[in-house]
Amino acid sequence: MSRLLVTGASGYLGQELCRQAAPDFAVFAAYRNNASSIAAGEALSLDVRDERAVRAAMRALRPDAVIHAAADNSQRSRAWGTNLEGSWNVARAAMECGARLLHVSSDMVHDGCAAPYADDAVARPLSLYGRSKAAAELAVRAAHPGALVVRTSLLYGLDGLDRGTASFVQRLQRGERLRLFVDSIRQPLPRAELARALLELLPRRLDGFLNLAGSEALSRADFGLAMLRWWDVPFSPEEVERVRAAQVSAETPLDLRLRLDRAQAVLGRELPGVTAVLRAGKTSR
Fold first, then answer.
1. What is the β-pairing status of strands 65-68 and 100-106?
2. Angle at Cα 272 formed by Cα 267 and Cα 278, nearest 5°?
3. Fewer Cβ close by (within 10 Å): the C or N end of the chain?
4. Domain match, 204 and 79 both
5. How far is Cα 197 from Cα 212, in angstroms, rounded to an integer?
6. pTM score > 0.90 for this model?
7. Which helix (H) or strand (E) holds 180?
8. For 137-162, what is each residue's pLDDT tens digit?
């Protein structure tokens, strides 16, 4: 059985990756925090920012493949430690032990001014998080030339609140008004679909860059409201303000649509959009 190391295994995507991979791989679930969230596999405490620890773990485990899903999604300077240094450490250690590497990146590496973006479009990030992820991509490709860098979009699921929707619920419960962007365009993808696609890509010797996102582009406002309605979260029109991101922050990229033709050709299918996912979910409730 092939040996798979998943970093960020206690995170939103990592949990699903380990759960789906467990039947077919010997899974090593690397985490820094929240060990109780590990869904499957052999839990392994590992701080990817610690170069010596990463190299030691990789030498001991000798994984055949690594999916690097660990990330710091904050807009704080600490993100550089995990996103850049951690990615470099993982990529170099994977290269040294001859492991296949899939690195999970983000559409936030783009500036939102030239959509739809090709798989290998040059990164021009606006935000601190986007800059840290763009720098991580370069580090990974330098340390492990055979790595596949996967750029994805917002993740969600129907088996539990995603982080974005959960934050909206918390604000409403505190009596705060939601400000939802009408001009920030993304292509949300269920985490289960992304995990499935990543695992399918492991045996395929693709390298470089690949966009993996939902087939439907919609605004953050439309997506946020759709998820609140799905979860039957009560709110009134007065509690939601539809605003333009361009008037709020110069660091918010607007149109982050991705070209998906290569992914569709490789996977042999189109990754589902939000409307189709919610419609299918209603029939199975």
1. parallel
2. 155
3. C
4. yes
5. 8
6. yes
7. strand 178-181
8. 999 999 999 999 999 999 999 998 89
